[in-house]
Specification:
Layout lengths: L20 H15 L7 H23 L9 E2 L14 E7 L6 E6 L5 E7 L11 E6 L10 E7 L9 E3 L6 E7 L10 E6 L12 H29 L12 E2 L7 E9 L4 E8 L8 E7 L14 E3 L10 E7 L8 E3 L5 E9 L12 E6 L3 H4 L3 H4 L3 H19 L2
Parallel strand pairs: 6-7, 15-16
Antiparallel strand pairs: 1-2, 2-8, 3-6, 3-9, 4-5, 4-8, 10-11, 11-17, 12-15, 12-18, 13-14, 13-17
Length: 409
């Protein structure tokens, strides 16, 4: 995900005083937003909020610098240290800014990941609305060569465009690319680049100081919008649902054409666990199936050093074809333990991507809350799910290595 600063033009402005004053004031206001968030009830909540703020500051400065229509490039929209919008631990997110009256060329090489998708958005996330998805498709619509390379063009509608040309609907402002991993250990990312067709080989003019001052001002507005939006966003889709339940699979609102999701929120005591049962959907139907927890800041939990998410490839599937996730604070010694890492409350999220058919309620999850001590008696295939301490250490080490390698891919 990314926040589009298009509403604030980056034209020259007179800042005879401090170029960074407006941004500094926005940072102070952002800290007030963090400290006054209704779910802040402990020092851990506040510390995580301040860490979220630090990542948001970095991301806002990065995003406003990436607002390049004439010489665009793919910027990382969110990642382990700049989290946003219940980011998927299994996904690399990239975006580039567009104009609907210009032509852009995207080239790359397909990796071995479970999914690669493209989405055109028409603008900004705000505390009251989401941007519209204008076009969305995955790499099944690409003409991929034997060596994995591909080429796409995006631009105004043209009757003579031919294959590989994607017409930009009016209002197109942003191209989002998602590369999704299911088997973290073995899948490898691809490559992707973008350039504007009529500016390749040219250089952008120097940026004057007045425009740099304007960038700081816009970055401050982006920072505040980012925080306010994604503190309000869960009210729309999560918190009005009954606690400790999950919805049926449904098309992701404003999302990809071939993605379904199931969402919920939890509230668990330290001696409680939530057992979530979901079918391991046939890979021919859904090559990617993932589950994760999110904090009340509406971002992923630490998925590098803790098992706070699982894909179908990472999970241990029971003999009846079901995956049983055990969400809780205490270590049950089970392969599919989802650590809530001190978060009594939080968000639950399933995603299925690259679907070949719509999902039904039978494809989705069910949830049951029980006492921690009841697991040996009530969890089906309990003995088969057992893992030793060295086995668990290896599971975490595999996650750490995979993410480090992915970020350098």
């Amino acid at each position: 995900m990314a926040i589009d600063p298009a509403a604030s033009q980056l034209g020259p402005v007179d800042h005879s005083g401090s170029a960074t004053q407006s941004f500094a004031e926005a940072v102070l206001e952002a800290e007030r937003i963090i400290r006054s968030a209704p779910h802040v009830t402990s020092d851990q909540d506040l510390a995580e909020g301040l860490d979220y703020l630090a990542g948001s500051i970095k991301a806002s400065l990065h995003m406003v610098g990436a607002y390049q229509h004439e010489h665009p490039y793919f910027a990382s929209s969110t990642g382990p240290y700049t989290k946003l919008g219940l980011d998927n631990p299994d996904t690399l997110y990239f975006h580039a800014y567009l104009r609907d009256d210009a032509e852009y060329v995207v080239t790359g090489r397909r990796g071995t990941t479970a999914d690669l998708s493209f989405q055109i958005m028409n603008g900004d996330y705000s505390p009251t609305r989401s941007p519209d998805s204008l076009t969305a498709f995955d790499d099944r619509e690409l003409d991929i060569a034997a060596d994995g390379t591909f080429r796409l063009r995006f631009g105004p509608p043209r009757p003579d465009a031919g294959p590989g040309y994607v017409a930009l609907p009016p209002g197109s402002a942003m191209l989002i690319v998602r590369e999704v991993f299911s088997d973290w250990e073995n899948e490898r990312p691809g490559e992707i680049r973008i350039h504007r067709a009529d500016t390749l080989g040219t250089s952008p003019p120097p940026v004057p100081s007045g425009r740099m001052a304007r960038r700081y001002e816009v970055a401050g507005k982006m920072l505040l919008a980012r925080l306010r939006t994604f503190l309000a966003f869960p009210e729309w889709h999560y918190l009005k649902l009954p606690v400790n339940t999950l919805t049926e699979p449904r098309p992701t609102p404003g999302g990809l054409a071939t993605q379904f999701s199931s969402v919920g929120h939890y509230d668990l005591g330290d001696d409680e666990v939530m057992v979530i049962t979901a079918p391991a959907v046939d890979r021919a139907v859904a090559p990617y199936q993932g589950f994760q927890l999110g904090s009340m800041w509406y971002i992923s939990l630490d998925y590098i050093n803790h098992q706070t998410s699982l894909t179908a490839d990472q999970a241990r599937v029971d003999e009846d074809g079901m995956i049983r996730y055990v969400v809780g604070e205490r270590d049950p010694g089970l392969a599919n333990w989802i650590e809530r890492t001190g978060h009594r409350r939080g968000y639950l999220q399933f995603r299925w991507q690259r679907l070949t058919r719509d999902l039904t309620p039978e494809d989705g999850p069910s949830a049951e809350v029980m006492r921690f001590g009841e697991l040996p008696r009530r969890l089906p295939y309990y003995d088969r799910q057992r893992v030793t301490e060295p086995e668990w250490t290896q599971r975490i080490a595999t996650r750490q290595v995979a993410v480090a390698r992915r970020m350098l891919g």
